[in-house]
Amino acid sequence: QSVLTQPPSASATPGRRVTMSCSGSSSNIGNNFVYWYQQLPGTAPKLLIYRNDQRPSGVPDRFSGSKSGTSASLAISGLRSEDEADYYCVTWDDSLSAVVFGGGTKVTVL
Amino acid sequence: EVQLAESGGGLVQPGGSLRLSCAASGFTFSSYAMTWVRQFPGKGLECVSIISGGGDNTYFADSVKGRFTISRDNSRNMLYLRLNSLRVEDTAVYFCAKSTSSWLHYLGFDHWGQGALVTVSS
Which of B6, B77, B84, B106 could form a Cys-Cys staple with B113, CB 3.0–4.6 A? Predict the structure, then answer.
């Protein structure tokens, strides 16, 4: 059972927008930066969003991150088939003094 | 080009030991924190350990404290993870990854290796 709660799945048709949440508490998301990783099948995770809403160079602006209070969200607009992947949020938890990952959301392009 | 390559995975019996290595190239190794992240068969991720660029600060997940040791050789651009007292639940793919910071709590890891499978079974 993950400290950060992510819905197990999300889906949308090509070209649409899909969003996914990452819910935590004041000791983790509420007080620390959130990072998002994309993991395509059979590959290592890839940094998608850092410090809540920043995109590394090379990440399309179709991907956007946000944070409000103790929750964070990742949105993918203009969904493409190649976006089918697992998406994980991660942050630091001050109470646990630990790095905490969400359980991941599997995005399916219908 | 940044490259990370893990080695040393394999099958080990419960209670056994293993050392994972990660060969790094294409960047100033000593300037960045490095991490080991594992992925369980059910796909969940866990940050096992992080080490600062100079090697003087480390982080370990509670699940591995006292059993795993992280180290680095900045003269050889190598990262290591020593896994002792292995348990069945340590079975996972172990990835090494490079941080974009020297700070341990910065969790942006921008380059990853291909992963090394560790299987703990009798």
Answer: B6
Instruction: Select from B5, B34, B58, B24 the least CA-distant residue to B107.
Output: B34
Q: Tell me what the mean pLDDT of segment B28-41 comes to.
A: 97
Q: Which of residues 28-87 of A touch B (CB under 8 A)?
A: 32-33, 35, 37, 44-47, 50-51, 56, 86
The answer to whether B33 faces chain A, any CB pair under 8 Å, is no
Q: How far is CA B72 from CA A109, B22, B100, B111, B113, in A?
A: 41, 9, 17, 17, 16
pLDDT (0 to 100) of residue B102: 85
Residue contact B61–A99, C-beta within 8 A = yes
* Residue A88 at interface with chain B, using a CB cutoff of 8 Å: yes
Q: Quick check: B37 contacting A, CB < 8 Å?
A: yes
What would the two tokens of residue B57 be? 């600060």
Ranges of residues in chain A whose predicted pLDDT is under 50: none
| Alpha carbons B47 and B108: distance in angstroms, whole number | 12
| pLDDT for res B105 | 84
Confidence check: pLDDT of B89 > 90: yes
Residue A81 phi/psi, 5-degree rounding, is -60, -35
**CA distance to A87, B21, B61, B77, per residue, from B69 (Å):** 29, 12, 11, 17
Q: What average pLDDT is seen over chain B?
A: 96
